[in-house]
Amino acid sequence: IKMAGDSRSPDVDTDGSEKNEETEIVVNVGGVRQVFYGDNLNQYPETRLAELINCLSGGYDSIFSLCDDYDPGKREFYFDRDPDAFKCIIDVYYFGEIHMKKGICPICFKNEMEFWKVDLKFLDDCCKTHLSEKKEELEEIARRVQLILDDLGADASESRWKRCQKYIWKFLEKPESSYPARVIAVLSFLFILISSVVMCVGTIPDLQVVDAEGNRMEHPTLDSIETACIGWFTMEYVLRLISSPNKFHFALSFMNIVDVLAILPFYVSLTLTHLGAKLMELSNVQQAVQALRIMRIARIFKLARHSSGLQTLTYALKRSFKELGLLLMYLAVGIFVFSALGYTMEQSHPETLFKSIPQSFWWAIITMTTVGYGDIYPKTTLGKLNAAISFLCGVIAIALPIHPIINNFVRYYNKQRVLETAAKHELELMELNSAEGKAASSKSELEDLARGGKEGPFYSSRLKVSHSDTFIHLLSEEKHYRTRLQSCK
């Protein structure tokens, strides 16, 4: 086998009588030999295999720019690439499209296609879906790693107020960042539970007190606890708003809107109680206050901020709109059909409870959902038969879309766990690589120092590299970072 430095031309026909269409080349990819003919390869002349046909007349420099090794005796080209991916890629020359085999990493397969200079448009749509999903996963891992690195690092050029903002934001939004942050998260969770319990206990008549006008109101002790909880929620929201890096996005976030709805009724009720009596009748003020106090149930949704399970459930329901729509459509059709049948069949009974079809909707709803309150029920034989068929159809209609919804929940939950583990693994690997790099650098600098090539103070300053700066430096090296991420399977 001739080496790449040899500038002599390989053995080819000097008269040029051999046509490209009749050329036969042998390609060895990872120990797997494949024979190709020019008429197949020239269908896509911009691919690497098609370029191999025309590179023989360009010398060994041209050949070794396309392959890893070449045997002129066998006219065999050697490539140190993935043979399984190559078997899929060559389908483009025979079928005009490419399918990925199961078990091949989509990102690695994309890199193989780029190496063989095959356009991604030949990849079938089903495989492009896997590729886009993998890209999203890697982008999510990179985003999580970058967030962790941003928390670890501190920019010395930033002002003191900016650094304070970042510290408060991390303290309130990221409980895993420190032990005090976890304590604050637990306290916030407890305040949510206490306020919810106080709201429920305050409605017990035995714990209520009667004011001067004879109206029942919550116990003053419960009011004090409620005030303390609202004070905590207000302080927490204001601090998070002040320290937020993007206040517009913060204000429009769903969970932050829930926080406002949990806090606002207290202050509106307080304002109406003290000022509203001068502007309107006392009874109207009390009705408005009572309506606003009902809005306190919104604070229970604040638990989603501290519960990954509730967040996963919300995402699963969001991704299952199609299945939920099918469920509602099935139920709507069944409710209309069985309520109309029930009304028609029950008209012959003198004591019928089905007064109209709209009134029968309620009976159809509680029957198809297998609740069955019993306030409306059929009395004729045909009506009872219709009821039996309706709740059987209701069970089937509810059971059919449930499985995809559960799958969405399990898939997203497992995906979040995998992404979290992958992000931690990336950080560990970067830390290991940075430690190895510093060890090698220290060894070479010690050797130079022993020869007197460097001064002591300058050498010691070179070794003072912060932990966070090392991480950010490694993450900014796109080639190293992408190579690690693209090896994920």
From TrEMBL:
Keywords noted in UniProt: Cell membrane, Ion channel, Ion transport, Membrane, Potassium, Potassium channel, Potassium transport, Transmembrane, Transmembrane helix, Transport, Voltage-gated channel
Its Gene Ontology cellular component terms are:
voltage-gated potassium channel complex
Region Disordered: which residues?
Answer: 1-23
Location(s) in or outside the cell = Cell membrane
- Basic and acidic residues biased stretches: 8-22
Family (UniProt)? Belongs to the potassium channel family. F (TC 1.A.1.2) subfamily. Kv5.1/KCNF1 sub-subfamily.
The identity of this protein, by name, is Voltage-gated potassium channel regulatory subunit KCNF1
Query: What region holds the Potassium channel tetramerisation-type BTB domain?
Result: 25-126
Q: Where is the Ion transport domain?
A: 182-416
Main role?
A: Regulatory alpha-subunit of the voltage-gated potassium (Kv) channel which, when coassembled with KCNB1 or KCNB2, can modulate their expression and their gating kinetics by acting on deactivation upon repolarization and inactivation during maintained depolarization. Accelerates inactivation but has relatively little effect on deactivation. Coexpression with KCNB1 or KCNB2 markedly slows inactivation.
Alphabetized CDD domains for the sequence: BTB_POZ_Kv5_KCNF1 (cd18381)
- Give the primary localization class: membrane
* GO biological process terms, semicolon-separated: action potential; protein homooligomerization
Membrane topology type: Multi-pass membrane protein
Q: How does it assemble?
A: Heterotetramer with KCNB1 or KCNB2.
* Thylakoid is among the record's keywords: no
TM region positions: 183-204, 248-270, 324-341, 385-406
InterPro entries from the entry?
Ion_trans_dom, K_chnl_volt-dep_Kv, K_chnl_volt-dep_Kv5/Kv9, KCNF1-like_BTB_POZ, SKP1/BTB/POZ_sf, T1-type_BTB, VG_K_chnl, Volt_channel_dom_sf
Question: Recorded GO terms, molecular function?
Answer: voltage-gated potassium channel activity
